[in-house]
Amino acid sequence: MQEKIKKIQKEIEAFSAKSLEELDNFRIKYLSKKGLLTGLFDDFKTVAQEERKEIGKLLNELKNSAQEKINDLKKKFEDLQHSGKSDADLTLPANFIETGSRHPLSITRSGIVEIFSRIGFTVSEGPEIEDDWHNFSALNFAEEHPARDMQDTFFIQKSPDIALRTHTSSVQVRVMETEKPPIRKIFPGRVYRNEAISSRAHCFFHQVEGLYIDKDVSFADLRQVLLYFAKEMFGEETKIRLRPSYFPFTEPSAEMDILCFLCGGKGCPFCKHTGWVEILGCGMVDPQVLENCKIDSKVYSGYAFGMGIERITNLKYRVKDIRLFSENDIRFLKQFGSVI
Ligand code: PHE
Predict the structure, then answer these.
(1) Mind listing the pLDDT tens digit for each residue in 64-115?
(2) CA 219, 224, 229: angle at the middle one, nearest 5?
(3) 104-336 architecture in CATH?
(4) pTM
(5) Strand partners of residue 208
(6) pLDDT score for 205
(7) Is residue 66 lining ligand 1, measured as CB closer than 6 Å?
(8) Ligand 1 pocket member 306 (CB < 6 A)
């Protein structure tokens, strides 16, 4: 039996194939159910006890080298095909490559950036991991403000406090500290809040905030810029209203709503029967915030605003569940064209 095994081993070592068909014949001859090796393994049952160890080893080696031979030759054929040197049919159509589409949040983000860039706003970005000063203190958040709570903010480190930024207002501070007015900028980016995840809230989302600082900037300027934005984003017929609100870093502060475009203001489930849909927060930059950033509040004034990209996208495309944006389900993602 040993002789037989050695002979086959030599045959296998010497084998080479010119085509995949030849290679397949080789596999059938040696490794198939009726192949030579299967026959040898059957014979092995009759081998005397004292020879078993030795012959078993040889048989296994034989089987491995046949399998290795097949793998090597197969790889050689594949490589040849990839390098175009085979006789493959080059007139066949190429494999179909599916092109992706832009993420809906990216589409909205660049839409917002584009609208503001037409009236002179440029983009600045900042770090997602922030210190207390840029995220809270410079923006007048009181020491005991609930946003500083562990339940609301993801802290990376305590005293000195380092956290995942809760808004991109932190970039406003960075820009005010380093640039001289006039400043006319928008700040897109990802922000984090420690919230229970539901269809309406997530532990991270995206914002675009804006800042304009110059001499004699008024609330009327703010309103007009926001009206322009709302019309560009949601259509010429869009109506807005400003409601008084509160933010630590703006005074006065307001929330902007647009007239519900589903019911035209009559009231429906979409606008919770109020006729209006909330879009963003805004206000005049608090003089103390300007001073915190070493800008003379007697000379300069400014406005700021901030909106959630998810919220604008939900309104524009009627997406009802915010979780869809981060689930990476292509059935959802491919419904958005690559326009804008
Ligand atoms: N930073 C506020 C928020 O995240 C939004 C805002 C920005 C409000 C600028 C007013 C002015 O909710």
Answers:
(1) 999 999 999 888 888 877 776 556 778 888 888 777 789 999 999 999 999 9
(2) 125
(3) 2-Layer Sandwich (3.30)
(4) 0.73
(5) 188, 307
(6) 96
(7) no
(8) yes
